[in-house]
Write a structure and sequence with these properties.
The structure holds two protein chains of two kinds.
Chain A lengths: L4 E3 L8 E6 L7 E6 L3 E8 L5 E11 L4 E6 L5 E6 L3 E6 L4 E7 L4 E7 L4 E6 L3 E6 L8 E4 L4 E6 L3 E6 L3 E6 H10 L14 E4 L6 E6 L5 E6 L3 E6 L4 H5 L2 E4 L2 E4 L2 E4 L2 E6 L6 E5 L4 E5 L4 E5 L7 E6 L5 E6 L16 E6 L12
Antiparallel strand pairs in A: 1-30, 2-3, 3-4, 4-5, 6-7, 7-8, 8-9, 10-11, 11-12, 12-13, 14-15, 15-16, 16-17, 18-19, 19-20, 20-21, 22-23, 24-25, 25-26, 26-27, 28-29, 29-30
Chain B lengths: L9 H6 L13 H12 L12 H11 L29 H26 L10 H32 L5 H11 L10 H8 L2 H4 L2 H19 L4 H6 L6 H15 L9 H6 L7 H9 L11 H6 L5 H8 L8 H13 L10 H14 L5 H14 L1 E4 L8 H7 L7 H11 L3 H17 L1
The chains are: A mainly beta, B mainly alpha.
């Protein structure tokens, strides 16, 4: 394997919960949230502009482990979700943290929609909080969910929330935005919103991760049982007939198929292919349209917690941290690592249907 | 016999070029080399295909200023750059050996499986290969017996001195030369025993030459056993004759003592098949089926027992004859009309499987479904098997990640913006939830 991969310096001291690249195509910044209660901001470029090793720009301490993080409208804006039940906004320039809202349980994920200027958080209290960034004074709307949310992803127009009991809701962001704009004043700002689509997961086991296609056509979801499903938003029978699922992240040992959870999925912003990272420490690239695996990288020494492509699709960041799935609860020193892989021109490109 | 080849021979398999890095084998060296260039020696950065791992390493370091550390897509123990591989060149001897061993083992396993599945004798041996060995062994034990018979015969001949005996034996010799090698009891056959060939060919000639024999007899005899009676006057002892086919049948495994293809055909003109015939056909499980013969399923239909059906459904090795017959019979109660006529074993089995899926009433389907399900999902073990609680939730419950409500109170005062709203809302819950 070529060494077009490097390890980011000064990684978190405990398991990584999320890793996001800046959506800005020219940026090489990553934010990483960790169970060590910190959010880390890295810049991969050094002073000369060449990418390598990277350096830790800033570290933002939280009160409790941070479960998710995302960039806001600019790179100076970061949103976090954590076990302290809060959804926070971090202003990088001033290093100030602002609590946007508080859930009634740990907050599992947070996403930012730049098209609609919304910050949406999903918590184990089975609610979504929708925050309007353009109106910071407004009270966030609370949308009840049927189950605990496990993962969330959005496109320009849609929000996909994957929940326990294999439930999956797809919301229309425009409708959400309009609705939340209308509701104001009443406390608590609870609102029943009918999702654009309610679906049952195509996978039989607990949904681990969901990721939307960059072209707004559909999404991929993964489960704890080494499987990934690819589905389309379009409710027409033709489009629904295209959906499929496949097995991955499995290893055969002594005739026993050891099945690992697929912890993370990320779509390539340019090619529309996607990467999956599993508890087996393997990262694979897939062509969801041609239904082909493009490549699989060599196994990392422990579970892959998160993957993400850079805004221009030239880099793939891989967060490796000990798999809590096997019941281990001690983090061995040095097992938490962030790899950044520089992708070749066609490395993540699908070959096209054969 | 210009029989169709069923697969590559061992030599052909061993001669196939294969890839050191991934153990895949290829039709020819050219394909192997292009495989290696595409899969193992291709530059990740620019897509250039190099000829060797060393070449790729140099390319990477010169062009991309990177160090190649391992060969792409290679098996875990074959990733080393130290071995210079090009096509089949450079593969270490010990690895070639292990590969060949594996190929041989696989070949034999596949062979055994196929034989078990089809009930066919091994290729090359044809019908005669195996028997060629067996009769030799048999000879040792039988020779004495035959010698004794022969001596008795001679003694009888000497005593009786009837010249009439000689003629039928001579006739028998010309007809049965290679086939009923044991039946002729004159001095002449003893020389035949020294040749392995008559035995080697015994399997196939048996059917060809023996059938005319029966054709001759059955019109007169009308059933299978009378022929022996007809032979007796010609000087054979009935036991020895009857014993012979039985032994032969046992020894050859597949070719039954009575050529079956002839039997039913002879029986067809007779509207009333003798009950013995049907019973016999059932008893000898190795009876090669007669595809496309309408009478058989009708006769044999009720005779297939559940065990046979089950065996067939489970895909266990079934004697070739048993399978079609069983399938045809099995289909009947399930209501497949066309199946008995179709000749391919695969068709029948897949058809049977389909039928079995649909008809839950029959006893066979459950036994059939279970094994296939097992086959599909092997044994699998989930690394994370809790389908209700996500790993993060589990982790969050660990004491070291526990969120301390006291700190919440402190910081909430400083940082909480809409404290009036949210603070009131979560106050009691905080205490409650954090404690469990």
């Amino acid at each position: 394997m070529a060494s077009n991969q490097f390890i980011v310096a000064s990684p978190p001291t405990d398991a990584i919960s999320a890793l996001k690249f800046s959506p800005d195509p020219n940026s090489t910044r990553i934010v990483v949230s960790s169970w060590d209660k910190n959010v880390y901001l890295y810049e991969l470029r050094d002073e000369n502009g060449s990418v390598g090793e990277g350096k830790l720009l800033q570290k933002f301490e939280h009160r409790a482990p941070v479960l998710d993080v995302c960039f806001g409208a600019t790179e100076d804006e970061i949103y976090t979700a954590g076990l302290d039940w809060d959804v926070r906004k971090i202003d990088v320039a001033t290093s100030t943290q602002t609590v946007l809202s508080s859930h009634e349980a740990g907050v599992r994920s947070v996403v930012y929609s730049k098209e609609h200027q919304l910050v949406i958080s999903a918590s184990w209290d089975s609610t979504l909080h929708v925050h309007r960034v353009d109106a910071p004074e407004s009270i966030p709307s609370i949308i009840p969910l049927p189950s605990k949310p496990f993962s969330m992803s959005l496109t320009a127009t849609k929000l996909v929330v994957a929940m326990a009991s294999r439930a999956l809701h797809i919301y229309d962001l425009k409708a959400l935005s309009l609705l939340t704009a209308q509701l104001d004043g009443t406390v608590p700002n609870k609102v029943e919103v009918e999702p654009w689509q309610r679906r049952e997961s195509s996978l039989k086991f607990m949904t681990r991760c969901v990721a939307c296609m960059p072209d707004d056509a559909g999404y991929a979801s993964s489960s704890i049982e080494g499987r990934v499903a690819v589905e389309w938003f379009d409710p027409s029978p033709e489009s629904q007939a295209r959906k499929y699922a496949f097995k991955c992240h499995r290893q055969t040992a002594d005739d026993v198929d050891v099945v690992y959870p697929v912890n993370t999925l990320a779509f390539h912003p340019v090619h529309g292919t996607f990467a999956s990272g599993g508890g087996d420490g393997v990262v694979a690239l897939w062509d969801g349209i041609a239904k082909r695996r493009i490549r699989q990288y060599q196994k990392y020494q422990s579970s892959v917690a998160a993957v993400d492509f850079s805004g221009n699709g030239k880099y793939l960041a891989i967060a490796v941290s000990p798999g809590f799935e096997d019941g281990r609860d001690d983090v061995v020193e040095g097992t938490v690592k962030i790899y950044v892989r520089e992708l070749g021109e066609t490395e993540a490109k699908g070959k096209g249907a054969k | 016999m210009g029989k169709k080849r069923r697969g590559p021979t061992l030599d052909e398999l061993l001669a196939r070029p294969w890839c050191y890095y991934c153990e895949r084998d290829f039709d020819d060296l050219k394909i192997l080399i292009s495989h290696q260039k595409a899969k193992h020696f291709k530059c990740e950065r620019c897509g250039r295909r190099l000829n060797t791992a060393g070449g790729l390493s140099v390319h990477m370091s010169q062009v991309h200023k990177e160090q190649l550390s391992a060969v792409d897509n290679a098996l875990p123990n074959r990733q080393s750059l130290d071995v210079e591989i090009f096509g089949m060149e450079g593969v270490p001897e010990d690895i070639i050996q292990t590969h060949n061993q594996r190929v041989v083992a696989q070949f034999h396993q596949a062979e055994a499986e196929r034989q078990a599945q089809t009930g066919n004798p091994p290729p090359g041996a044809g019908a005669g290969g195996q028997p060629a060995k067996r009769p030799k062994l048999e000879n040792v034990s039988d020779l004495k017996k035959r010698l004794a018979e022969h001596k008795a015969k001679k003694a009888e001949a000497l005593a009786g001195g009837s010249s009439g005996d000689v003629t039928p034996v001579g006739a028998g010799q010309t007809q049965n030369a290679g086939t009923f090698s044991q039946s002729p009891s004159t001095a002449a056959p003893s020389s035949q025993y020294t040749y392995p060939q008559p035995y080697g060919g015994a399997g196939s000639p048996y059917q060809q030459t023996a059938s005319p024999v029966y054709q001759n007899f059955s019109p007169g005899g009308q059933s299978q056993f009378p022929p022996s009676a007809q032979y007796t006057p010609s000087g054979f002892s009935p036991q020895s004759f009857q014993g012979t086919p039985a032994q032969a049948g046992a020894a050859y495994g597949t070719p039954p003592p009575f050529p079956p293809s002839q039997q039913p055909q002879q029986q067809t003109p007779q509207t009333n098949t003798p009950p013995q015939a049907a019973a016999f056909a059932q008893r000898s499980g190795s009876l090669p089926a007669v595809p496309g013969l309408p009478q058989r399923p009708a006769v044999g239909a009720p005779q297939v027992n559940a065990y046979q059906l089950q065996q067939m459904h489970m895909g266990h090795p079934v004697p070739a004859a048993g399978a079609p017959a069983g399938a045809a019979n099995g289909e009947k109660p399930l209501g497949a009309e066309a199946a008995p006529i179709s000749s391919s074993v695969d068709d029948l089995i897949s058809g049977a499987a389909k039928e079995a899926d649909q008809a839950a009433a029959s006893a066979a389907p459950p036994t059939e479904e279970k094994p296939t399900k097992k086959d599909k999902s092997k044994q699998s073990r989930l690394v994370y098997s809790d389908n209700e609680t996500s790993p993060e939730e589990k982790m969050a419950k660990l004491p070291r990640y526990a969120f301390v409500p006291d700190r919440l109170g402190e910081t909430a005062l400083e940082e909480q913006v809409p404290a009036a709203v949210t603070g009131a809302e979560r106050g009691p819950d905080t205490v409650f939830d954090a404690t469990d």
